[in-house]
Amino acid sequence: MKKILVTGGCGYIGSHTIVDLIENGFEIISVDNNSRSSEHLLEGIEKITGKKVKNYKVDLCDFNDTNAIFEENNDIGGIIHFAAYKAVGESVEKPLLYFENNLVALINLLKCVDFFKIPYFVFSSSCTVYGNPDQIPVTENTPIKPAESPYGMTKQMGEQIITEFSRVSDSACALLRYFNPAGAHPSALIGELPIDKPQNLVPVITQSAIGKLPGITVFGDQYPTRDGSCIRDFIHVSDLAHAHTLALKYLMEKKPATNPEVFNLGTGSGITVLETLQTFEKVTGVPLNYTIGANRPGDVIAIYANNDKAKNELGWDPKYSLDDILSTAWKWEQKLKEDEKLFTGKNIQLN
Ligand code: WQD
C-alpha cells in the first residue's frame, strides 16, 4: 500500500514533501483545514508533478471527521503528520490555542492509526524540543531541557505521546526534529505562504525586501554569540522534504532499532540572524532595512544540528546552501508579487 496520508498537505513543508513523495512513486491524499494555509499550493504541486492531490478540508481536532477519512480510504499505507501551529512567539501569547490544536489533533490521528492499523507514522517534530542546549551542535541524544515556548512544549509532549503509543502499537514511528526550514522549491511554483504577517525570519526578510513589510526588527543583539544575535541552522525545505521520503522508506524497509526512531534534520552549520541578513543582501543585491529590538520571549539563544544519524541511517545528504535557501526564497517572493491576485491574503478564501 503506497497511499500516504499527509496532514497539513497544503502547508509549507507538507506541500514540498508531497512533491518529493510523488517523485518517489507514492500516491498522496492530504488533510488540511486551511486555517493557516491555502489550497493554492495544490495547484503548484500539480504543475510540478502532473498529479492532482485530493485534500480533505477537515479539522483533525474533530475526531468524527478525521475518522471518516480512514473509513473512506482503506488503503492508507502510512501517515506523515505536519498539521500544527508553529510560531514560537504566537505560542507564548496563546498557549491554550497551541496545546489544544497541536495535541488534540495528534491524539485523534493516533486513535485512527491504532484502529485502522496504519503501519508507519512520521511526526513533524522540532529542534525546539531541546530547549536551550548546554552544548551545540545537538545530537539526538542531547538531553531534553525545558522547552522555551508552548510551541516547543507541544512538540516535546507530542514526542512523549507517540513514544508511549508505540509501546502498545505495532506501528513503526519516526520523529523528525527540524531545525529552521526556509527557502522554496527551485521552480518557484510552491513556497512559504504566510496567510497573515509572517513570524519566521526568512519570510520577514523577503517580504521586507519586496516592500510588503516596512522593515525588519532583529529581536536582540546582546546574546552571548559571535555578533550578539541568535544562532540558527537553516535547512532548505526541499532537503527537508526529501528526508521525509527517506524516513518513510527507512521504516518500510528496515526494522528500526528503536521505536520511535529520532532524527535531527539540519545542515549542521549555525548562522546568526545578522549574518543571515548580510547573506541575503550579498546573494540578491537587495539592501535590507532593519533595526535592533528587544529579545523575543521564547527564543532559544543558539542551536544547530549534528546530522550524522540522518546522513548515516537515512542516506540523507542536504544539497542546498544558505545562499540557495535565500535566493529561492527571494525568487518565490518575487513570483508571489507577480501573482498578487492569486496569493495575497485578502483574496484567499479562509474558512
Ligand atoms: C529565528 C530567529 C528570532 C523574526 C522556527 C519555527 C519552528 C521550528 C524551529 C520547525 C530567532 C529571529 C525572527 C523577526 C528576528 N521549526 N527573528 N526577527 O523561532 O527559530 O523557530 O524554527 O519546527 O516551527 O518557527 O524561527 O524564524 O521565528 O526565528 O530577529 O522578524 O530569527 O528572534 O532568533 P524559530 P524564527
Summary keywords:
alpha/beta; Rossmann fold; seven-stranded parallel β-sheet; two-stranded parallel ribbon; 12 helices
Task: Please tell me about this protein's structure.
By secondary structure, the protein is of the alpha/beta class. The protein has one domain (3-341): NAD(P)-binding Rossmann-like Domain (Rossmann fold, 3-Layer(aba) Sandwich), CATH 3.40.50.720. 41% of the residues lie in helices and 16% in strands. It is built from twelve helices and 13 strands. The protein has helices spanning 12-23, 40-49, 63-72, 88-93, 95-115, 150-167, 201-210, 237-253, 273-284, 308-314, 322-338, 340-343; strands spanning 3-7, 27-31, 54-56, 76-81, 120-126, 172-178, 180-182, 216-219, 231-232, 234-236, 261-265, 271-272, 290-293. The strands form four sheets. A seven-stranded parallel β-sheet has the order 3-2-1-4-5-6-11, with helices on both faces. Strands 7-10 form a two-stranded parallel sheet. Helix 1 links the parallel strand 1 and strand 2 (27-31). Helix 1 packs across helix 8, helix 5 (95-115) packs parallel to helix 6 (150-167) and helix 9 (273-284) crosses helix 11 (322-338). The longest helix is centred in the N-terminal third of the chain and has 21 residues, at 95-115. The protein starts with a strand and ends in an 8-residue tail after the last helix. Mean pLDDT is 94; it is low at 347-351. The structure holds UDP-4-deoxy-4-formamido-beta-L-arabinopyranose.
